[in-house]
Amino acid sequence: MRKMLYVLFAATILVSCSANSNKGYESVDADSFAKFIANEQVQLIDSRTPEEFNSGHIPGAVNINIDDENFRAKVNELDKSRPIAVYCRGGRRSKEAADIMVGCGYDVTELSEGIISWKGEIEQ
Predict the structure, then answer these.
(1) Could you tell me if residue 70 is inside a domain?
(2) Which residues are annotated as catalytic?
(3) I need a labelling partner for 9 at 20 to 30 A (CA). Which of 24, 32, 113, 114 fits?
(4) Strands 62-63, 108-111: parallel, antiparallel or unpaired by DSSP?
(5) CA-based nearest residue to 85, from 31, 34, 17, 121
(6) Residue 82: how many CB atoms within 10 A of its CB?
(7) Structural domains counted in the chain
(8) Spatial distance between the Cα atoms of 25 and 82, rounded to a whole number of angstroms
(9) Tens of pLDDT, residue by residue, the chain (124 residues)
């Protein structure tokens, strides 16, 4: 019985948060990203490590590290009725994060070349 419950729990997690969404998100340049995050409804997520985040991030961003073992659980705490904007340093990790977020049922826009392409303000 315990084994069956474990299997059902694992299946529920996989179905609710698929890691293979076949993109399903928009990847945009820094200018388009700046316009997108100007909307107060957008949830801005920095998917880098806490150390990278603390060295400088886009104002208003919340740090949810893609490499954290609890990444999916933290993502599932976000408001699914509001769009997400996600970025990392160069674009690789944010694409991975966006794919997971889309698999969890979120509307996601990703900064294609990461914060290194960002032309706006940086908060320390």
Answers:
(1) yes
(2) 88
(3) 24
(4) unpaired
(5) 34
(6) 13
(7) 1
(8) 14
(9) 656 544 444 444 444 554 444 579 999 999 999 999 999 999 999 999 999 999 999 999 999 999 999 999 999 999 999 999 999 999 999 999 999 999 999 999 999 999 999 999 999 9
